[in-house]
Design a protein that fits this description.
Layout (H helix, E strand, L loop, with lengths): L13 H7 L20 H35 L3 H15 L7 H72 L1 H8 L4 H24 L5 H12 L30 H39 L2 H37 L1 H7 L1 H4 L4 H9 L9 H28 L4 H24 L2 H49 L4 H11 L3 H24 L23
Family: Belongs to the tweety family.
Main location: membrane
Membrane topology: Multi-pass membrane protein
């Protein structure tokens, strides 16, 4: 943590600190350190133990669903005989679909539990889409920063190779011709040899500060030496810069940011697509469950139950992977400098002082290339002084040397321009900014996205557990085919005949009830108070 405090504009977030503080247990239930060492088997054991918590939760979910299935399949068989005796009484007081009393209340409760579970699943799906987008944004920022850093490193290598090849061209071509022309004049010959010696010194200095170049860069330098002139330096932008991918997919040595960016982009595309398909599967299951409950389609609910089982396993499985990833990422983000410096993949071919300079970029630290750059600058200045002296004094006596002298001056001007660009690129600010941007993308947006995806997996797993518990009771409440056939037969009778018969029966009963009052002797009479018939009771939910 002390090394991380020196990095400007980056501090581990609250979520990183909380996840990093989680206790770590190995398979023998012993406490372990939370230092990010992905190659260590002990560290991998702690991640496996944390992932196994989702497996335990899956077993609990299966037991809960199994207990509800046993309850619906076994315990309700004994209630059928009692329910058949109560059906005749319920039919007289029932309305609508013929449900009342305990049966109506049970159907209503089961249906509302299923609807609430589906609603919770839809909320989890929304959280999952947001988390997937956040994680993708973080990975995009990480890969963009890596590509920009790779572009900077490629520019440094190209500048060095271009400068070295130009100086080698001047040594092998114009300076050699000038030495042959100035053979009879010792002062001019001494100045020419001094230019040659200083050029070779600059070549050695720049070659020593070169970041580890690949064989392709070395071949480019050799081709430039064999050419007749220096081609202008035009580095390829990071969006189209080619990166050498090693055969077999192994990590190249030394580590290449461009290779890492391409690998992460490919993996991120597959991860993003996998989560989108999982979210769409959950959404389709939830929507068709609602449709099956509304249409009372048993076959649709049975099919969605099978898919809900699949979604339940996928939710708990993804939660286990997300838990391990979140914890490992929090360990990495809590102290990234230590891992980068100590890792053998990153440290191959580059000294720890150089890595520490670019990772921290502290004002108190001096550039490890400062002395070499100063010596190179002085050597180029001395070469320029000697060439100016030869231009003033030697051309009057040796006019044939003018062409060679002009070529050397042109090469020197191009070399000085490349050198100033090299000094600016070797400054730690550019690469350190890319490093900080990559950390922010991975440890801020990426971490937040993974936490939202973990919440989605947990909520969706709970929702599908409740759905699997409530769906058997829901489709048991649906009318069977025989009941639907009887209802259709009763509804297919002549509605006009039955309606006329009911009217006749009602009018006859009214006349029978009012007959005693019409036969009552007297001028005026008042019918006794009689209460209206009770209204039918509605099924309570």
């Amino acid at each position: 943590m002390n090394a991380m405090t020196t990095v400007p504009s980056y501090t581990p977030s609250l979520w990183v600190r909380l996840c990093h503080a989680l206790p770590r247990l190995d398979l023998t239930m012993e406490m372990k350190d939370n230092v990010f060492v992905p190659d260590s088997w002990e560290y991998q054991q702690t991640l496996l133990v944390l992932s196994s918590l989702s497996a335990i939760a899956l077993v609990i979910s299966l037991l809960v669903v199994l207990s509800f299935l046993i309850h619906y399949c076994c315990c309700h068989r004994g209630d059928r005989s009692e329910g058949s005796e109560e059906e005749e009484e319920d039919e007289d007081a029932s309305t609508g679909h013929g449900y009342s009393g305990k049966k109506g209340r049970g159907i209503c409760c089961v249906t509302w539990v299923a609807v609430a579970s589906v609603t919770l699943c839809c909320v989890a799906i929304g959280i999952g889409f947001y988390g997937n987008s956040e994680a993708n944004d973080g990975m995009y920022q990480l890969t963009s920063s890596l590509l920009t850093a790779n572009y900077t490193l490629a520019s440094i290598d190209l500048l060095i190779s271009d400068t070295v090849s130009g100086l080698q061209l001047s040594v092998s071509g114009p300076l050699t011709s000038m030495e042959e022309l100035f053979t009879g004049s010792k002062p001019f010959l001494a100045s020419t040899r001094n230019c040659r010696r200083l050029s070779e010194n600059v070549i050695n200095l720049l070659s020593s500060i070169s970041m580890v170049r690949s064989s392709a860069d070395a071949g480019l330098a050799n081709d430039s030496v064999g050419g007749a002139s220096i081609t202008p330096l035009t580095p390829v932008p990071p969006s189209v810069a080619p990166t050498v991918v090693p055969a077999g997919g192994l990590m190249p040595s030394p580590f290449s940011p461009g290779w890492a960016a391409n690998t992460l982009m490919v993996n991120e595309d597959y991860r993003w697509l996998s989560y989108v398909l999982l979210l769409l599967l959950d959404l389709i299951v939830c929507l068709f469950i609602l449709l099956g409950l509304a249409k009372q389609a048993r076959w649709l609910l049975i099919l969605m139950t099978v898919l809900a089982w699949l979604a339940l396993f996928l939710s708990w499985g993804s939660l286990g992977l997300e838990t391990a990833t979140v914890v490992a990422l929090s360990d990495f983000c809590s102290d990234t400098n230590t891992f980068v410096v100590n890792s053998t993949h990153f440290n191959t071919g580059t000294s720890s002082d150089v890595l520490d300079y670019y990772l921290t970029c502290s004002r108190r630290m001096n550039s490890p290339f400062q002395q070499l750059l100063t010596q190179s600058q002085r050597a180029l200045s001395n070469i320029h002084t000697h060439l100016s002296s030869l231009d003033r004094n030697a051309l009057t006596q040796f006019p044939k040397a003018e062409k060679s002298l002009r070529e050397v001056q042109q090469i020197l001007n191009s070399t000085e321009g490349n050198f100033h660009q090299l000094v600016a690129l070797l400054n730690c600010r550019g690469l350190n900014k890319d490093y900080i941007d990559s950390l922010k993308g991975l440890c801020y947006d990426g971490m937040e996205g993974l936490l939202y995806l973990s919440l989605y997996s947990f909520l969706s797993a709970l929702a599908f557990t409740a759905i699997l518990c409530s769906l058997p009771g829901a489709w048991r409440s649906f009318p069977s085919e025989s009941e639907e056939y009887e209802d259709s037969d009763s509804e297919s009778e002549d509605p006009f005949t039955s309606h006329q018969a009911r009217r006749q029966t009602a009018s006859g009963s009214q006349r029978g009830a009012m007959a005693p009052f019409y036969n009552y002797p007297g001028a005026g009479w008042t019918p006794p108070f009689s209460s209206a018939p009770p209204l039918p009771t509605l099924p309570a939910c």
